Amino acid sequence: MHDIVLTPDGRYLYATLRKGNVITVIRTQDLDIAAQIPQAGYPDLVAMSPDGGKAYATNRHANVVSVIGLADHRELKRIPTGKGPHGMALIPAARQ
Asked: What is the pLDDT of residues 49-78, one digit of tens each?
């Protein structure tokens, strides 16, 4: 395990398992595994979107960021990146 991030609602923990190429989703209520999300290559760090709808996970050896829907713990898409993405920061959109 490399990174563990709590979802904004506090209901789940997202844990990256680098060598297994998977993100394990753990329910905080009972610490049971709610989902296993296969990843492209060496999932590293996870950031949660400010609106609580998505998680973004860097996959260092696959050069992508996985976008995961928090409602059903499924990968929505992969965003190509430069070589070896390792971390990220997300900020809320400017209010108008």
From this structure: 988 899 999 999 999 999 999 999 999 999
Q: Please count the structural domains in the chain.
A: 1
**Contacting residues for 77 by C-beta, under 8 A, at least 6 apart:** 66, 67
Beta-bridged to residue 91, according to DSSP, are none
Domain at 30, CATH number:
2.40.10.480
- pLDDT tens-digit readout, 11-50: 999 999 999 999 999 999 999 999 999 999 999 999 999 8
Spatial distance between the Cα atoms of 50 and 27, rounded to a whole number of angstroms: 20
Question: Considering the domain boundaries, does residue 89 fall inside one?
Answer: no
| φ and ψ of 6, to 5 deg | -85, 135
Domain that holds residue 27: 4-80
- In this structure, what token pair is assigned to residue 90? 């997300």
Residue 95: pLDDT over 80? no
